[in-house]
Protein: protein-histidine N-methyltransferase
Amino acid sequence: MTPDRDLNLNLPVLGSLAQHEASALSNYATEYGSRGYMRENTTALAWREEGKITLGNYPPVHPTETIRASRQRRPSEMRYYHLGTGIEGEKAWAVSTVMTRQNFVPSADGTGMVHALIPLWDMCNHTNGQLTTTFSPELDRSECTACRSYSAGDQIFIFYGSRSNADLFVHNGFVFGDNHHDSMRLKLGVSKADPLQAERAKLLSRLGLPTTGEFYLKTGADPVDGRLLAFLRVFSMRQEHLEHWLDSERSSDLVYPDCALETDVETKTWNFLHTRIKLLLSAYPTTMLDDLDQLNKGGLALCRRLAIQMRVSEKKILHGAIDYVEQRLLACGHPSSNN
Structure:
């Protein structure tokens, strides 16, 4: 925040404009000391009866130390920020804290966006919900409304946005166990050596899809993103199918699971995805049970625990997608050929 802007402590929660794409909030407030720059105390915002906020000790959702550790593992990044590979302690913590808490707010003249630090808002932990932060040009301040009702002593949460655990892990330094917006990226492409590459590219272009790009598997009951499904269907078509859908006015239906599609194309689509997911799961050095066993035993270093939690998050998506794909194959009358 700029020095000439007021900090209104009567707001339910303070925050910045919800466009913190540069890096968002680590939201783990630590007690700073000259010899102990990372202490065990964790501070978050709590609601007071009189309608103001106060500080309280709660378990951290995501420790800032993770961000600091990731900086230490990337010497090139540390040199970029003029830290040097040998700098540790308070300076490393301070720089990583600032770099992971940048937010955008409108400039004073309203012509653009400027970086801002908003420490009070930064103490709020993440939860599922919706963005409730805006910027008021009239009052020249950021405003964040409560995402639910709070009682005295309750910790105040905010929603960081529709981010996967991979994004939260890299940019915020934590893994959110019940992330309703979790997803996993898949890189797919049509080979230039494919004899039907031109036809596939034309149909994909009509659907607004690239011939090579990133697609997503999601958490929840419908894990196959519509863009991914349409790409795989086009990828699985023979020439006669491609010609049919290029001539069809309903080609946009290819993004929907229940699109009226030839059974052999549908079967090939789901079998391909089933094989790809199995390959991804086989690439992990551990099973889901192994990971859960390590987490339950305890005694793990903080960063290692987060890495295993991230691995579990990915595997949950993949296992959920496997179950979904197998159900789709059964609906086609063709159990998975990989079982």
Summary: The longest helix spans residues 302-331. The longest strand covers residues 183-189. Strands lie at 43-47, 53-57, 103-106, 113-116, 125-126, 133-136, 141-144, 157-158, 183-189, 212-218.
